[in-house]
Amino acid sequence: MKIIGNSLEAKVSLTSDDSEIGFLNDNLELIKKVLIVSELNISKGTKKDLEILIEKTTNEKCQRCWMYYNPKDFSKSDKNICKRCEEQLKI
Ligand SMILES: [Zn+2]
Fold it and tell me: pTM of the entire structure?
């Protein structure tokens, strides 16, 4: 069993049928914040019950804010920080 040390390292996939999928998609960002995870995927399934899969993210960790982002969301000039941090440092 793989151990995830920090919830930000987690990638969560939720699978639900038609009855819940709209709600999940509408609240994607909120659910992400509540779970404090860096990746959240929602897909449509056929089972009535909500399926939850937790894996370790393949995203890279920003050395400044410790959030995990897709490698393409990192600063071009400094590979250790994300674009969001880069913006903040410019101000
Ligand atoms: Zn950052």
Answer: 0.62
